[in-house]
């Protein structure tokens, strides 16, 4: 990844084009890095099928089947 090889600094945040972030996203993310020595930060999965209210329906990570991840990896190969 060219962006990663050119990055400078202690923390790198990856954001996909389908991510909705709040106004305090970077501040909140960095607070975990300051609080813990080694950490990977992730956010909750939110259903986006409802285009009128994309952040309205939260879903647990366990609600997703492993088939979803398999399909995603096959598509991106």
Shape: extended
Tell me the domain tally.
Answer: 1
Order of helices and strands: HHEEH
- The order of strands across the largest sheet is 1-2
Proportion of residues in extended strands:
5-15%
What summary fits the major beta sheet?
2 strands, antiparallel
Describe the structure concisely for a colleague.
This protein has one domain.
Describe the model:
The protein has about 80 residues and is mainly alpha-helical. The chain has one domain. It is about 35% helix and about 5% strand. It has three helices and two strands. Strands 1-2 form a two-stranded antiparallel sheet. The C terminus is likely disordered.
What attributes does this structure have?
mainly alpha; extended; two-stranded antiparallel ribbon; Glycosyltransferase 2-like domain-containing protein
How are the elements arranged and paired?
Layout (H helix, E strand, L loop, with lengths): L1 H5 L18 H11 L9 E2 L11 E2 L6 H10 L2
Antiparallel strand pairs: 1-2
